[in-house]
Design brief:
The structure is a homodimer of 377-residue chains. In chain A, helix 4 (112-120) links the parallel strand 4 (103-107) and strand 5 (125-128). Chain A is built from 14 helices and 13 strands. In chain A, helix 1 (34-47) runs antiparallel to helix 11, helix 5 (133-143) packs parallel to helix 6 (167-174) and helix 12 packs parallel to helix 14 (363-374). With 377 residues, the first copy, chain A, is an alpha/beta fold. The interface between A and B is large, with 88 and 87 residues.
């Protein structure tokens, strides 16, 4: 079981050795940013580890409110609910919406936390073929009685394979169902996609529908989003940005507001600072996109059929599991860390190699990875 | 919305003013302990905010493993799984056990997170009367077909009212059902009850059944526990201690291990240090118990019918909601903070005043609260 000995970054210490690192989800390299670390320390010294109280009593801290204010502002002036872990996001969302849908349609490759949340509703849960609006349409037709309202739940960017969900197309399918809801868990898209880093919904041109919280006209679907601040953002915890009215409903409905200690204060302070950096340094996102393109271009030249989206994740299948373990191991011996994932939502039984590129990788670092990989596949 | 301006402790800064503080869940006063804060800062500087990776790849940190080792050791040498929030505990437990029970029997006043977890199973969920083994027995008889296996889910200590669940009696009822399971969410008991701070199961004399993971004989019920490290322990996050075999199953089954970033490194380091203090300073727990007795004795002399358990929570109902808000407000004006809870699992429609006492409160502080309260009720 390898142990991390430094913040995740372009170089990362694993089991005491410094590796050129292309794994995990620290896409913008902010987890180890000096300002972020300083914010965590200062908050620990001033406020201790947590408020140890519910937010309906004396649990609020300035840092938690600051994360919510910044996340609301990122999406154009709404509000947000900040909670302990991104894993809880779909569950909080579906609990709040519970009486407003009759069945859950789930992309078959959705993350574990979405499958958990769907089951929790007690309503019919129907999987549709991965990223397939036509199959969604067919399942809706087969599943719903007239007048029933579907809730579609999908990842924005899929964690293992890095694909972008066809949100605009899914949204369009839902157009035909009055009262329909589209929920997106954008753990890997938030802070990465879109000119302003709003993620997959910005990439799909749907930001405005999100902030409004209610459809522009009575027949358009409603759109809801949850995500994490632990990946590209560089902090930690889950976030649910929406309209002010909807966030008030979330807080009144989900036990996570009144029945839990809010995120630990040092982490909330670090996360607020990371959100500030995310918004004030758009060049990080530009550089991340360029690096994603550079990596994917190099992999294509090597014969891999990678997509050309700005997502900084490449998923490679090279022979069987044993062969991929060998490649991963040999790269480690050359001082380069990528992940072999034996199992994950969306992967076949042989698993896959997963390469993640960061904003802080230089051209030379990417070339070094490509050169080493070329000799092994 | 009041804002915390200091760690929670016997005195706590709220909205810029320092109050004598009897609220929340920082029962041992460790959230602001200098060693705990130092551990958080040092880890932030060395490791950044989080590993930003799954534990099945490069997500492990020494701090997270140390929390698990210490929590396992606290329960006598088993293992533990440490995750982002105590709220997730019952859900992780029930997911892992999913194929091993046919119905969930839930104490009607269980915390929101247990109700969420029960619903997620998709199996029948039957509420039994609060802390009532006879009613549990009646519901089991009415609900189960021959051969069906019940899972009983209850808080160990109830958050708002501070009552201790009658675990030994519930356990005894389950004796008659082969394959039965008792699951306890001990958020408020862990670190408080029992000579070693193992919580409600130690208080009930059931520790050994927990560590074994499997029943002593085939007909005895199995016992599982989850809890939080955010309250008495003084850190943050959820914990599930059990046998080594069962923890291996949890990690293989629940998406929370392979599909989530582990708890943030500074928080994990702080939590490991807090667990060390909890175990090395049993005097804290003794003092907490004495303070609970002192507070309850004083309230009884005032005419309140409080129990005489060592739980550091007193729940007072004094007239209607408006009257209790008045009392809470007038205490604040005198520099003393207690909580008025308008709504919580286990409370009536009028809500209640909740007084929490800490290990760090002096006799004089408790006397001051009692003297002020006496003039207001």
């Amino acid at each position: 079981m390898p142990l991390m000995g430094s913040p995740p970054g372009d170089h990362t210490v694993i089991d005491g050795t410094r590796y050129l690192y292309f794994a995990g989800t620290g896409y913008l390299g902010l987890q180890g940013h000096p300002d972020v670390i300083r914010a965590a320390c200062e908050a620990a010294q001033r406020y201790g580890i947590s408020s140890a109280n519910s937010r309906t009593a004396f649990g609020n801290t300035a840092a938690v409110l600051e994360v919510e204010r910044r996340a609301g502002a990122l999406f154009g002036g709404g509000d947000a609910f900040y909670f302990a872990s991104g894993y809880m996001g779909p569950s909080i969302l579906l609990q709040t919406l519970q009486r407003e849908f009759d069945a859950v349609l789930l992309d078959e490759w959705s993350h574990y936390c979405s499958a958990d949340a769907a089951r929790q509703t007690g309503l019919p849960v129907v999987a549709f073929r991965h990223a397939d609006p036509d199959d969604l349409h067919a399942r809706l037709t087969a599943t719903l009685e007239p007048g029933q309202r579907p809730l579609v739940l999908t990842d924005g960017v899929f964690a293992a394979r890095g694909e972008i969900a066809p949100l605009a197309e899914l949204w369009h399918v839902l157009d035909q169902y009055p009262g329909a809801i589209l929920c997106v868990d954008d753990a890997h898209g938030l802070g990465v996609l879109g000119a302003d880093g709003r993620g997959t919904i910005e990439h799909a041109g749907l930001t405005e529908s999100l902030v409004r919280g209610e459809p522009a006209d009575a027949n358009a679907p409603r759109l809801f989003l949850c995500g994490t601040l632990s990946k590209a953002v560089g902090g930690y915890g889950g976030i649910l940005p929406s309209s002010r009215d909807f966030i008030a409903r979330v807080k009144a409905t989900a036990g996570h507001y009144g029945g839990a200690t809010p995120p630990p204060t040092p982490v909330a302070a670090a996360t607020a600072k990371a959100l500030e950096l995310l918004q004030s340094q758009p060049a990080l996102r530009t550089r991340l996109r360029e690096n994603a393109m550079r990596l994917k271009q190099g992999l294509r030249e090597m014969g891999f059929s990678t997509d050309d989206t700005p997502v900084p994740i490449c998923c490679l299948t090279v022979g069987d599991a044993a062969n991929m373990r060998r490649i991963q191991q040999m790269l480690m011996e050359q001082g380069i860390a990528i992940a072999y994932m034996a199992a994950y939502s969306g992967l076949g039984p042989e698993g896959a190699l997963r390469v993640a590129v960061f904003a802080t990788h230089t051209d030379e670092m990417i070339r070094q990875l490509l050169d080493s990989l070329r000799l092994l596949v």
